[in-house]
């Protein structure tokens, strides 16, 4: 399967390595508009073809899958172009920065009947699958509260037009909270939520830190927090009526060995280890390659689907609107 990467950012290099590790994938092409970084990327990852024009890459008939690694506000434009070119698409998260652009992108995918997935790579990893399996089993009883936080000092590296912490980092805890709540609620119930939020803005005018509370269907509370100008710290816990699950390993950057703690209130606590063959990017490449080989237009839950991507974007945009 011949992959092509649009953009030469740090994440493009991570994906190039993941493509190299999949024995049925190859990095066929890369496109970049900055000659120095394009040359450095090509030297490090050795694609077959190098473009300085994004459109030319997408029109190359040899390309099977296009990975869009541009800033968030450009995603919709290139999803549309790739769909029109008939390419399978992996678009880096977040899908967009507003619902109008989100729907334009997804409408193009649907119209041209091409494969599409958003780059919430952790959803393809066995760690995520195991967490959701435990929750669905009822081992902690009825889910009552989800507590999620992700902070990282990335503000100096991101494009201001990407619109800040909610879309650069908040998409991770929000999407995992969505999957978690979906273990006991229907999608309709999940989308019936009340939301309140506070936050602060950074020097670029974007929200750089925010905390929000969501109440799903008057049944589950979500306490969510993100910030992009300090730390590297993850936190994710699910409290049920008889116990709780705490993710000890970073759920959004799982590796080959991951752990979680399963606690039965006041009686027992144990650590569960989930081994894997690689990191989340490795599993993302494999999942997408297999889906495209099989003629599918999307992945299946708990992997990122177009429906999940749109729902999470709605939650993120509502979160942004609620911040005061």
UniProtKB/TrEMBL annotation:
Origin superkingdom: Bacteria
Leader peptide range in chain numbering: none
Oxidoreductase listed as a keyword: yes
InterPro entries attached to this UniProt entry: Gfo/Idh/MocA-like_OxRdtase_N (IPR000683), Gfo/Idh/MocA_domain (IPR050984), NAD(P)-bd_dom_sf (IPR036291)
Keywords: Oxidoreductase
GO molecular function: nucleotide binding; oxidoreductase activity
Residue ranges of domain Gfo/Idh/MocA-like oxidoreductase N-terminal in the record: 1-117
Recorded family membership: Belongs to the Gfo/Idh/MocA family.
Name of the molecule in the record: Putative dehydrogenase
Source organism (scientific name): Vibrio diazotrophicus
């Amino acid at each position: 399967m011949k992959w092509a990467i649009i953009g030469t950012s740090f994440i493009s290099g991570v994906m190039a390595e993941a493509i190299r590790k999949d024995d049925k994938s190859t990095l066929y092409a890369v496109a970049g508009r900055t000659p120095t970084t394009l040359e450095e990327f090509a030297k490090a990852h050795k694609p077959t073809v190098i473009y300085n024009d994004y459109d030319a890459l997408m029109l190359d008939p040899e390309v099977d899958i296009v990975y869009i690694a541009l800033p968030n506000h450009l995603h919709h434009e290139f999803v549309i172009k790739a769909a029109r070119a008939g390419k399978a698409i992996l678009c880096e998260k977040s899908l967009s920065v507003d619902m109008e652009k989100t729907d334009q992108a997804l409408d193009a995918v649907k119209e041209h009947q091409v494969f599409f997935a958003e780059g919430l790579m952790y959803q393809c990893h066995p760690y995520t699958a195991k967490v959701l399996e435990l929750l669905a089993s009822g081992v902690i009883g009825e889910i009552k509260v989800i507590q999620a936080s992700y902070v990282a000092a990335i503000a100096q590296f991101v494009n201001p037009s990407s619109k800040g912490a909610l879309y650069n980092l908040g998409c991770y805890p929000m999407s995992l909270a969505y999957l978690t709540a979906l273990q006991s609620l229907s999608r309709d119930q999940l989308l019936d939520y009340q939301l309140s939020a506070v936050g602060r803005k950074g020097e670029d005018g974007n929200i750089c830190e925010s905390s929000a509370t969501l109440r799903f269907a008057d049944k589950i509370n979500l306490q969510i927090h993100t910030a992009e100008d300090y730390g590297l710290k993850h936190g994710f816990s699910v409290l049920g009526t008889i116990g709780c699950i705490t993710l000890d390993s970073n759920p959004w950057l799982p590796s080959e060995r991951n752990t979680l703690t399963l606690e039965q209130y006041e009686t027992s606590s144990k650590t569960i280890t989930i081994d894997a063959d690689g990191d989340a990017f490795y599993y993302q490449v494999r999942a997408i390659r297999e889906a495209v080989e099989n003629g599918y237009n999307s992945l299946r839950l708990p992997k990122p689907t177009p429906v999940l991507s749109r729902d999470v974007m709605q939650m993120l945009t509502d979160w942004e609107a609620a911040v005061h």
